[in-house]
Amino acid sequence: MTQKSKFVLVGVAGVLAGAALTLNLSAIADKEAGAPLPIEELRAFTDVFARVKNDYVEPVEDKKLITEAINGMLTGLDPHSAYLDVEGFKDLQVGTQGEFGGLGIEVGMEEGFIKVVSPIEDTPAFKAGVKPGDLIVKLDDTPVKGMALNDAVKRMRGKPGSKIRLTVARKGVDKPIVLTLTRAIIKIRSVKSKLMESGYGYVRVTQFQEHTGELLAEALNALYKNNKAPLKGLILDLRNDPGGLLNGAVAVTAAFVKPDALVVYTEGRTPDAKMQLTARRENYLRPMQADYLKNLPQGVKQVPMVVLVNSGSASASEIVAGALQDHKRAVVMGTRTFGKGSVQTILPLGNGTAIKLTTARYFTPNGRSIQAKGIEPDIVVEDPSMPSEDDGLGIREADLAKHLANPSDKEGTSIVVPADDEAGPAEQPSRERKPLAPLEPGEIVSKNDFQVNQALNLLKGLQILQAH
User: Which residues form the signal peptide (predicted)?
Assistant: First the structure.
């Protein structure tokens, strides 16, 4: 959500980092009037700086030392705070507009390794078979152990048409998997839609970008026009949607609920980190922008809905699912979501760089924090084309080192849900995997997508019940 000097991001994408920043202790002292400076800690920092500067085996520029100190300060806080150099800040801004160069992988840091959160649909990574939970161990011939997340992302990005070799470790696979990917300009249309059959629409949101709300409005208008009658049911697919801009989440929710309905509220330390965002236009539109939700078909706010989610549904997509679930506007179906309940604010520093800083936790309208827990679906339906949730092959917020605790946890630690069968997974019956059928030209969802078909069956059942 663009503001005077910052915008709010609730995604999980890895970003670039590394540049110079002047440390102005006097400014810090002025802002924290009355608060004593940590003199001993600052003395230790300057001592270490001097030792490295004078005694390291090779000369090191001051700029590099300060940059790495800033990187360490931010990455040591949580998995989502980061320092953005000039190039990284530009890339992030371009990415939120739906176009950037690279492979199309959402990544996070875990114990010094790079873990895949989700490959973005229709990108080189997605087409090459990169999976959520994959551990990237090499980029070309360079091991990534200990490499900063931002440096790894920078290596994966590059000139379109150039190639990079990823070596990934995948749970359940004995040998590392080597994938050669060709970089491309990643152009993502964040909303896709189709008429499943007469009366039933399907909308998929792949990311929450600057124009997601507008694209959703276009998709809904087209569905009603093509159906030539009010829809009987609608599937909103948020599976593997890693998040994005907060105003995009508000816009998508606002399309389906009353204008005064609460979508999400945030709690942080500063006044501007405490927000209550309702489905009103000022919470999702830029100043002077025309309201693209104003002329939606009348039936949009009453049409029966199913929201599909899985472990790759994170942050902004969890805000939408949680709001629609709390307002009893939709049935949430699928598997438990990623569990990222924090808000990152992009704070420009005036020299072309910025910091991405976790500034608040967000809560669903009923006061639920999904941090490190996720959204529990109303109806659990696993995807037969993917490993079972019990296999533990996916990655969630609770699996990331230094993740924020859920404020409802009395002990301040992540919730650990025990397996239903205490005998362990070895004694549980195996489940046959059923790969999805290849997409036909022009299609956006596989015909044998089990979860989509179950959602469609539920909507038809609701239609029958309403008719009686």
Answer: 1-29
Active site residue 315: yes
Which of 115, 131, 340, 373 is catalytic? The answer is 340
Same domain, 149 and 201: no
Q: Are 241 and 107 contained in the same domain? A: no
- Give residue for tokens 């022009």: 442
Number of domains in the chain: 2
Is 0.70 surpassed by the pTM of this model?
yes
Q: Which helix (H) or strand (E) holds 63?
A: helix 62-75
172 and 275 fall within a common domain: no
Return the bridge partners of 185, or none: 101
**Mean pLDDT of the chain, nearest integer:** 84
- For residues 253 and 288, the answer to whether their CB atoms sit within 8 Å is no
Q: Which of 91, 134, 326, 399 is catalytic?
A: 326
Helix axes 246-254 and 212-227, enclosed angle (nearest 10): 30
pLDDT attached to residue 283: 96
- Of residues 185, 179, 325, 210, the one with CA closest to residue 264: 325
Does 369 qualify as catalytic in the annotation?
A: no
CA distance 94 to 100: 6
